[in-house]
Hints:
CATH superfamily of the domain at 66-195 in chain C: Cytochrome c oxidase, subunit III, four-helix bundle
Strand content of chain C: under 5%
Distance between the termini of chain A: 45 Å
Number of strands of chain C: 0
Shape of chain A: globular
Helix content of chain C: over 70%
CATH topology of chain A: Immunoglobulin-like
Oligomer: heterotetramer
Amino acid sequence: MRVRDLMLVGGVGLGGTAMMIGRAATPPGATISGKVTFTGTPPKMKPIDMAKEPFCARLHAAAPVLTENVTTGPGDALRWVLVYVSAGDQGSAPATETVRLDQKGCQYIPHVLVVQPNQPLDIYNDDSTSHNIHPLAKVNAEWNKSQPIGAPPIHAKWESPEFIPVKCNVHPWMHGWHLVLTTSHYAVTGEDGAFRLQGLPPGKYTITAWQEQFGTQSQDVTVTGSETKSVSFVFKATPY
Amino acid sequence: MGKLFAVVVTIITVVSTAIFIAHTWWLPPDISAHGHAIDRQLSETMISSGVLFVLSQLALALFAWRFGDREDGRRVKPFPGGATPMVVFAAVLVGAEILTLTLVGAKVWAGVFQTPPDPNSLQIDVQAEQFAFYFRYPGPDGRFGATHPELINEASENFFGLDPARDTSARDDIVVPTLTIPLNRPIALTLRAKDVNHAFYVPELRIQQDFVPGLTIPLHFTATQTGRYEIVCTQLCGLGHYNMRAYIEVLPQAQFDQWLKDKAAQQ
Amino acid sequence: MTTVASPPAQPPGPPTPAAPPVVEQPRPRPAQTGVWIAIAAISMTFAALTSAMVVRGSAAADWRHFRLPPILYLNTALLLASSAVLEAGRRRVAAHLVWVTLGLGLVFVVGQVVAWRQLVAQGLFLATSPSSAFFYVFTALHGLHVLGGLGGLGYVLRRFDAAGPAPVPALGAAALYWHFMDVLWLCVLVLLVLRV
Amino acid sequence: MTHATVAGAHRHAPPQGFLRKHVFSLDHKVIGKQYLDLALVAVCTGMILSWLMRFHLAWPETPIPGLAKLSPNGAAGGVITPEYYLSLMTMHGTIMVFFVLTTAPFAGFGNYFLPIQVGAEDMAFPRINMMSFWVTLVAFLVLISAFVVGDGPPLSGWTAYAPLSAVGKDAGPGQGVGQTLWAVSITLFCVAQLLGALNFVTTTLDLRTKGMSLARMPYSTWAWFITSVIGLIAFAVLMPACILLILDRVAGTSFFIPAGLVISDRLQPHAGGSPLLWQHLFWFFGHPEVYIAILPGFGIISHILPVFARKPLLGPRVMIACLVAIAFLSYTVWGHHMFLSGMNPFSATLFSVPTLVITIPATIVTLLWIGTIYGARLRFTTPALFCLGFVSVFVSGGISGFFLAQPSIDTYLHGTYFVVGHFHFVMGVAAMFGIFAATYFWAPKMFGRMMNETLGKWHFWLTFIGVYCVFMPMHYLGLAGNVRRYSAFTDDYLKPLIPLHRFITVAALFTGAAQLIFLFNLIRSRFRGPQAPDNPWEATSLEWSTTSPPPFDNFGGRPPVVERGPNEYGIGSGARGVDYGMQAAAARVSAR
Lengths: 240, 267, 196, 592
């Protein structure tokens, strides 16, 4: 049971980004793909010192975890950027598969998690320490629950679209996002800043990119048939 | 029944006292310059109140043993001398003890909390928050940047609400979750709370002080032994109270200087 | 309060044969005593609030001074008048004067509400500043106690209507309480004038 | 005052019908029993909460069977979350301090026996008396409702330090609706106790029967009287403090919340308030509250001990002087809870002196009890055993006060289990022993039947040994620096102490289980067991001059005339037979 859980976590941790980019194996319709980058000097990704929680500090003794509010990759790529269809989507069947959020090594995995309204969300504590999950929701109902060692997963769902910052009250550095979207056409950029929205019926769409610190940018795109269009977003970064 | 009571009270008294005397559970070794005075005060109180404790419990036990009703029509005996001599005796005895404890204790207390810090102290800014401590050193420029609560952003590790964009003195401030201090050098902390009440407690340092939101509270001490100790919060601050801790790392002066240099380079 | 009439406790032993003569004492009046005790407790409550106000005001950068609504002085006059009427009513044991007091007391409470509305019109709400907060707390708490006093007067009037002798002790107790409401209000007013 | 039958206002006809007789009764005896029943429900609740806490401390990761169903929010899968632990702790403290330690010895027994002991027919204001009980009940229900409303019960402790208690739900689960309910409940409780104290003081001053001078009042009456004077001042301060707290929470004021607080990543919209103001107001109430809990115990012990020692209390006037001195001093020491709070360190010394001075009357009181036993003819009944146990645990708890009263030592011991051990001994266990002694002593009078002595003695021995096993080790934990109010001991230096915690937990579970004997005995003796005679213990005070239980107006329309003080034991030749003189001649009244 425990072993299987851990393997599952590992799987999600490694493959999470890939899963989110390609949700299904090339569905029919058009594709919008591209890359999110920045110009200017972004803030430093600072090492997080988890000395307060010896269990987690030991896990990251060799290589400290870095802050994730602005995560950059090679080629000025920006990671953890949400790209989604903000207008023009004709609607799709509600998502029913369970999304999983892990607390592992005193980090939220994934840092940015996308769900659709009422999609089941299971929250696991994989650490040998107690965690607390406090989504600072404004539109949805805010809650604040601890998950001690040995407690079962928390089953949650979000009812309305909202970008919800999530924090752990016990570990000040633990921050993540729950993004509740009505559309099923979305992607979260990986280390290379790339994204890919697939299976779009012909039509005119507004594509929006959202980064937690730099805000949003939008572009209108019209697609026909099964063409692939390329769109890119560039955020202006400041060091502080 | 009276004899049983006497035996039970005696056993309880003897066992309780023996554990105190044997120091089975006792204070951790003192690593502070001022702690020996507190320890002495504690020991003196322990001895004088221990004597009172044992005497009263044993008197209670003895009287319960001796003065049970044997239904023999014996007359009750009044307490020798009545209440007055005993009351006067007790008042004088306890009064003298109080007087001694107050005079000595007030001096100990004043030595810790009512003296100004040494002017050569190392200044460190401490912020307590739900549920962690963060420590700030002024950096190479020797100045602390101003704090702005509205700029506090834990996601980017800006725990103090510094404004490096506009405030250059804030750029080199060193912020760490472990209180690293040099050996035998007076340390002057300024305690500030970000959200609710907290407390700073290091048993080995024999020091404890609350953080109060809205107040800046000074606290100073000198550590006399190297090592790694725990700082814990003793003022109920919310759900993570039990897990609110930090470590204090006492280093020899040279190692401390090196540590500070390394940290400054990382900023 | 009354004094001890009986002999002091005796030492153990047979009771003294000749008990000293029992002196006739005035009948105890629990209602009066109760009101005195209530006065002590209420004074303590307002003292606590006053000290809270002093502490809170001593270091506050957010303390906003404002002018008290002038109607307060009219209300003060009304309350003092009502007390005078009640005192006359108590001495003559006259129910109609108690009715007048009841009316004046009601007008006082309404007047206090008008004072609140005037403050609200100036944009001074409960949470605007500690000064306005204390103003509302003091006046509301005093108003509640006045309403309690009105209840007491109502009880006295009901006793007047019932058969039997006039409720002199109850009237005396109610009057004592009512006068205390005056004194309390004057203290509160002085405090507000000085601090707010 | 001397004329007992004071006047028409209090003389009311016996009530008819079940509701008027047993529920909405104006009879002080019924109200006293209602208070005691409320305290019984409260103490069971509070003890179950402490069991859950103790279990969690010893085995933090072990699920508690059934708890997941009872509280799916606080203990998913049966494992208590840290916030739920703090909620349990907050509710345990609040319930025990307010609804047990204030309600039972003061409001409960006081209501029942104060009027009888002074020879009155009822309280001075029966209607206010009834209201006082019902407001207390509502306060209790409001508090308990926090378990089922909103995010659960509050978690800021029974002291509810601001700003944690004042900022609302950002401060954690239970700090929303739950904390507001707490503040409302305590406000109501203050109102109820003020009304109750008003009655107690007036009754004592005005309704004493013929011959009942102040000097002839039993010590329990004195203690209730002094306690109600303390209560009048203390609750009159806590009530406005709670009102200000409620306003901070619901109306956006800033009495206790300073500017610039960032809680749960949100800058709080408050400015300028003073958290220390709450602490001062709270402890100005809070320290006297300790004496509200324990002084009735002093009175009860001083009242009962001579009965079973068959000897007058040593130094009766000194005893009363000490009670008055303690009551007075209790208002000068509140700052000793705040030595390390950030107030001016100089004032710590000022508060430390009266705190230490209080030990003088407390020591004298203890010595008077011990001196009373000297040369006595002790009858070891259950109430007598609880009196002796009271003296023992009071000594144990009082001694540790010497340490905490000194700021220099408090620097180390503040906020540790040493404090927990201290106040549980001195105000928890000692006050409970007072309640037990009172229950065994007065149950025959209240219910007309004797309680079972064998069960009572088992109850005493298990409890007496049990509380020492629970609370004495807490002093050792405190010396080792074990911090209180922690839901788990994850710190390195605390881990070696966990075995001692397990010992305490096992002892607490056993001691708690021993209380079932008491509960069984108490309930059984309402229906079974030998009928109680009027004066089964051969005691002197007025309650023993009337029937068991007393009639509606206490003395069957013939108020007693008091001829002696309450202290007339061990008189006469010493031969078998009557060795005591009753305060008033026993007048057999017709039981209704």
